[in-house]
Amino acid sequence: MKLLILLVIVVGIIAVAQLAKIYQLSARLRGHREEDISEADTRLQGSLWIVFMLVLFGTTIWQFIRYGDYLPPSASLHGEAVDTLMSYNLALVIFVFFVVNALIFGFSFKYRYDKNRTAHFFPHDTRLEVIWTVIPSIVLAVIIIYGLQTWSEMTGPAADDSIRVELYSKQFDWTARYAGDNDEFGSTNFNLITPLNPLGIVTQDGIDQALLKIEDKIAKLNNEITAEKGHLLAEKLELERSLHPADDHGHAGHDDAHHEVSEGYKNNLENRLAAIDDLLESGAATVMTVAAYEAKEDKIYRLQRHRQRILELKNYELGEDLNAWEVGEDDRIVKSEFHLPIGREIEFIFRSRDVLHSAFMPHFRAQMNTVPGLPTRFKITTTITTDSMRTILDNPDFNYILLCNKICGSAHFNMQMTVVVETQEEYDAWLSEQKVYMAEKN
Ligand SMILES: [Cu+2]
Questions:
Q1: DSSP letters along 59-83, please?
Q2: Are the beta carbons of 303 and 210 closer than 8 angstroms?
Q3: What pLDDT digit, counting tens, does each position of 399-412 carry?
Q4: Distance 407 CA to ligand 1 centre (A)
Q5: Contact call for residues 186 and 207 (beta carbons, < 8 A)
Q6: Cβ of 1: how many Cβ atoms within 10 Å?
Q7: What is the rounded distance in angstroms from the CA atom of residue 331 to the CA atom of residue 206?
């Protein structure tokens, strides 16, 4: 069947090519040149411009009717400003679109070839040049100034009574952080990031935890390399040489003196030798390549440096300001869903652990890149609760959403969080139930 279809297509192409050839031949026989175009042809082509223009305008208008209302109503105050800005820009673009296309297609039709018409020589007109330079400049300036104004309102300083929420991105999830009763976020340091402290909040607990984790890792690596067979054998040889110096002829007198002083030391060596023999006989000794051994040594070195950085942070960075250690202790950490009260100004602070992500909350018309090492921010004022929006959209399953809008890796699609907008009382109740930072440790 497929072969048949292919055959029909091939035969069809050959037929068309042959027809074109016949047409050329017959035209030549009739004394026509290929480049001569009949008046009927010109009229047809000219009318086709108009037909195309009408189809283009028609489908554009149809798309606006069909898809123009693709967004649910804005659920934030500044979202309304963004929507107005977008509508204004869109109206302008549509107006220009219709004018320019009407001129292009209309003139193509009106000035189609006519052998009785001679072209008018019109090389330059200063007035025309000024008009089509100045008008677009003014329009563009208005667009830019209006856009900048809306932008600076969204990113301007937040009010004192605004609620601050930190959104922390990493491959591949979001974490929200709320300041505790002290209304202040604890400072953070990436050196302190551990599974129990994913945001690296600086507190005594956080530091102890990170140090413990590092000690564990160093101890484990140390065990691995001290049980290496080649090194054990070398150590054994060394120990045996120290324990039986008699093998080393010519220094007997000196060794006797040494023997007297270090009876305890000798015991230590013997114990170590016995331990090595146990390891070798039990088969617990490992064999690794020189490269693997050195890689582990290098890892230990880097962990020690990490430990050093934490100790320095402990000693110098916060130093005298004892309060700084406690600020973060009541921070609340929230995963998978976060809540906002209705009618309040919310200031979002965005941070990223690893790569660029983008926090996108389409219903609030809010989007901001999250940049490693550079906190970004954005403020909105909520206007519609989740419940009201469900009624408006007639969709009982509707939820506001935060999602990542920057392709950040393999599980990017899964990087989202539900946002719940509710009354102040509901919000307060919810927040008080949220996990206090590292609470499970105490
Ligand atoms: Cu992402």
A1: HHHHHHHHHTT-SPPPSBHHHHHHH
A2: no
A3: 999 999 989 888 88
A4: 6
A5: no
A6: 5
A7: 12
411 C-alpha to center of ligand 1: Å? Answer: 8
The predicted pLDDT at position 56 comes to 94
Q: What pLDDT is attached to residue 234?
A: 83
Neighbours of 194 (CB within 10 A): 15
**β-strand partners of 164:** 347
Amino acid (one-letter) located at 138: I
CA distance 426 to 423: 5
d(CA 31, CA 35): 12
Domain range summary for the chain, segments of one domain joined by + = 13-155, 163-185+331-441, 209-317
Q: Which residues contact 146 (CB under 8 A, 6 or more apart)?
A: 85, 88
Q: How many CA atoms lie within 13 A of 150 on its CB side?
A: 19
Distance CA 81, CA 74 (A): 9
Q: What DSSP state is assigned to residue 201?
A: B
CA of 363 to the centre of ligand 1 (A): 19
Distance, CA 359 to ligand 1 centroid (Å)?
A: 8
Pick the CATH number of 163-185+331-441 from 1.10.260.40, 2.30.29.170, 2.20.25.160, 2.60.40.420: 2.60.40.420
Nearest Cα residue to 132 out of 121, 123, 144, 140: 140
3-class SS of residue 381: strand
Work out the burial of residue 146: count CB atoms within 10 Å of its CB; fewer than 13 is exposed, 13-18 middle, 19 or more buried: middle
Query: For residue 410, how far is its CA from the centre of ligand 1 (angstroms)?
Result: 9
210 confidence band (pLDDT: 50, 70, 90) = confident
Per residue, the 3-state secondary structure of 92-144, as one string, reads HHHHHHHHHHHHHHHHHHHCCCCCCCCCCCCCCCHHHHHHHHHHHHHHHHHHH
Distance, CA of 216 to CA of 210 (rounded, Å): 10
pTM as predicted: 0.69
Q: Write out the residues surrounding ion ligand 1, Cβ under 5 A.
A: 357, 404, 408, 415
